[in-house]
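Okay, any thoughts on this one?
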Amino acid sequence: MSRAAILRIGTRASALALWQAREVAARIAAQPDAPAVELVHIRTSGDSQSERPLWQVRGQAFFTREIDRALLDKEVDVAVHSLKDLPTQLDAGLELAALLPRADPRDALVSRCGATLAALPPGARIGTSSLRRRAFLARLRPDAIQLELRGNVPTRIERLQRGEYDAIVLAAAGLVRLGLARHVTEYLSVESFPPAVSQGVIGVCARSGDEATLRWLAALDERDARLAASAERALLSHLEGGCQVPLGALATVQGDTLTLLACVCALDGTRHLSAHAAAPAARAGAEALGVRVAEELLARGAGELMASERQARAVEAP
């Protein structure tokens, strides 16, 4: 930690990112003799490319790269991320120091007319910002017209209310955290609409070996969130995926058992592959569970499905 008594937390400046950073700050401040905390706003490449669909842009870490770079450069002491935005392979010198308790991992449908996904009229215009959501929407509502949706959460809801869309799909956790859950029309089933890897989890990174900072973050790490995220991120890593792959997954802890469900879906919704498995709820077995489910998906043809989707997008992208 630098500047003697101030812990600097790097974060994006969106309403949701600031909520997450303030939550981390509050949890640090609740500890005895905690240092003062300062939020440092950092603009990321994902913020800069606010109009272009991110699935058309090569690479990963659109919303985390610049914050982690500031952490490595010692401009901040802590980085707070939506864990689903964070690559499975961290930059050398960084570690995932804490995972906060997971919020609702599901996706939520917000519709103008109050209709559920199944009840939306034929040809409904649905806004979404991820390949995963596009794929599962195509599977459930192949008649829908899918439109690109970017911007922060309040902006997306405003665009819906202006009539640009008939419905939009957002992460339930973000809506709840911002006090916007009243807009939710339907919480989408994890079986038919599996969430993004680590959706609903706040990840806190620090420099490896920075014991002055790590001591304050250790108490924030929650066991169930760590187990679930470890399994899901191991799955994603083994599939060599990223935020641009139509993969949904959810790990849950019930008693002494950790269960992982995962599904890969073609963008047109015509083909999907799923797998699930369970293991003892222990840190040592969580990553192995993720690898096991990934291997099952690969054995069923997930590698070929994802490769064909990547090739198709390479042709379509500008």
About this structure: The first helix runs from residue 15 to 29.
